Amino acid sequence: MSNGQIERIILGAEELFLQAGIKSVTMDDIARHLGMSKKTIYHFFNDKNDLVIALVDKKLKEDECQIYEIINTSANVMEEMINMMKCSQEIFGRINPIVIHDMQKYHPEAWSKFQKFKADVIVKTLEELLIKGIAQGFIREDIDVKIMAKMRVNQVEMGFNTAIFPIAQFSPWKVQYQLLEHFNYGICTINGHELLDQYKAGHTEKIN
User: Fold this and answer.
1) Does residue 116 fall inside a structural domain?
2) Within a domain: residue 117?
C-alpha cells in the first residue's frame, strides 16, 4: 500500500505543479487535492523539496525509457528524429515553463539531477544518434557531433526561458518545435532532408 500511496502523492503533486508552478503550491494544497491528511504526506516525504526530487527521479526514469523505446523501434535515424518530435510534442504540450524556472531557482538538488541526466543520457544519446546518421548518409559528415548534441540540449532549455520567450507571447510547444525543426534541417544531408519531408508529410496526413 505504501508504494501506491507514494505514487499517488507524486502524481497529485505533479498535477498541481504543472498547473501553477512549484513555488506557489503548498503541502496543504497537495493534501487537499488528494483528499488525504498532510500527516500522511509527511510520513513519506520530509518536505516539498523531498517530494520535488522524487517527482524528478520518476520523470527522468520515464523519459529515459521513452527515449530508448524510440531508438529501438525506429527504422533509421530520420524516423528517430520524427518520433522524437512527436514525443517532444506530448511532453512540452503539458509542461508549464514556470516549473522549470522554480526548480532551477528553489530546488537545486532536483535541478542538479536534471542537469546530470541531460549530460549523461540525453547528450550521449544524441551523439550516438548523430554518428549513426552520418554512417547512414542522412546527417552531414562535417558536423561536430559533440558540439551539436550539447547545442541541441541547451536549445531545449533556452526554449523554456521565459525572459527570452514570454509565455504571453509564445507557445512553449511552438518554440520547441521551431528549434527542433531548425536543428534537424541544419544537420541533414539532401537525402536526409528528403526523408525528413516524407516522414513529416505522413505525420501531417495522420493528424489531418
Assistant:
1) yes
2) yes
Residue 44 CA to residue 41 CA, distance in Å, equals 6
State how far the Cα of 201 lies from the Cα of 23, in Å rounded to an integer.
41
Return the closest-CA partner of residue 152 out of 100, 200, 88, 74: 88
Distance of alpha carbon 183 from alpha carbon 151, whole angstroms: 9
In order of 82, 142, 160, 172, 195, the CA distances from 200 in angstroms are: 7, 25, 24, 20, 9
Q: How many domains does the chain have?
A: 1
Q: How many whole angstroms separate alpha carbon 63 and alpha carbon 121?
A: 10
**For the segment 45-104, what is each residue's pLDDT rounded down to a tens digit?**
999 999 999 999 999 899 889 888 888 888 888 888 778 767 766 666 667 778 888 998
Query: The domain containing residue 125 runs over which residues?
Result: 52-207
Spatial contact of 188 and 199, defined as CB atoms under 8 Å apart: no
| Angle between helical axes of 2-20 and 48-73 (0-180°, round to 10) | 90
CB 120 within 8 A of CB 155: no
